[in-house]
Amino acid sequence: MPAGIGLMTETRMDAVDFVKWDTTNPRLIVWKFPSDQLATWTQLIVNDSQQAWLVHEGIYEGPFESGRHVLSTENLPFISKAIGLPFGGSSPFTSEVWFVSKTEVMGLKWGTMQPMQLMDPVYGVLLPVRAFSQYGIKVRDGRKLLAKLVGTLSAFSADQLDDYFRGLLTARVKSYISELIVDQKIPIFELSTHLDDISAKMPEKLNGIFDEYGIELTRFDLMSVSVPENDASVIELKKILSARAKLQVLGANYRQVRSFDVLDAAAGNEGTAGGFMGMGIGTALGSQVTLGAPTAMGGLMNTQDAQKVPQAGSMAEKIRLLKELGELKSAGILTEDEFNQQKAKILQ
Q1: Are 96 and 31 contacting, i.e. CB atoms less than 8 angstroms apart?
Q2: pLDDT tens digits, residue range 191-204?
Q3: Which candidate, 73, 75, 250, 264, has a CA 20 to 30 Å from the CA of 343?
């Protein structure tokens, strides 16, 4: 006798008098009565949390809900039609009895065997994602479950169902999370803040595949969504995000930080931009960059109190100033328009 299963039978003319399923295993959802030798006097006893089905050569009769049922030709016309017993007769017959548990089974676990590869919609990087959840199921149509999933097995547990649906769950969960992060522009690193929303919508997304087998997904609790910390793409992206966070704290963008570097170098180089620094342009430009203005040179030259570029008295002086102006443009401090504006002033 299988663990957790108790049954009560008495025999008369080799036929079973009582058919009953008593189980202490909450994860067992289908069980086949071990004998198919029944009779029109056999009593089928079904508990409150169960339903039963009689099956003869592929013909299903039921469901028999909770209560005591006498398997007579009066209440089971299929016995007369399928087996040829006279109506109202009393005789043995052969038929399988299947019991199906209607109790909700909780605590089934699902997780990704291998990380799902998802494209981050914000950073455009393909990242490996792991997900883990617990879910619950309940039998809604015992006939579908028996015909499409259980087959000739003598018993079927929630753990077997979990193994069967693991691949389908992975495909559907991956598809839904991908749609979600694309539609709502959610960075993968922030998915953990959306676990409740994802969990609430998963039964609706997944019940299509369960319904085909007579099963209902009663709940789906996504416990965690994470990325492997040792993955190369994850490490690189975190470095980039860390650098960006530092710039945001400083209140500067990348171009401004580079401008600081160029200004520091120019201030100590008499042959490069020393001429401009000597005219006070460098000092004013530095103060503009410090304030975060992306077009500091343009703002400097357009203000009334900005220092004017002195008129070059000789062609050699003009050439020198133009050369230094070009170096500032190459360093990214001057835009094309700003360069042309200052060039025109030197050549006046």
Answers
A1: no
A2: 889 999 889 988 88
A3: 264
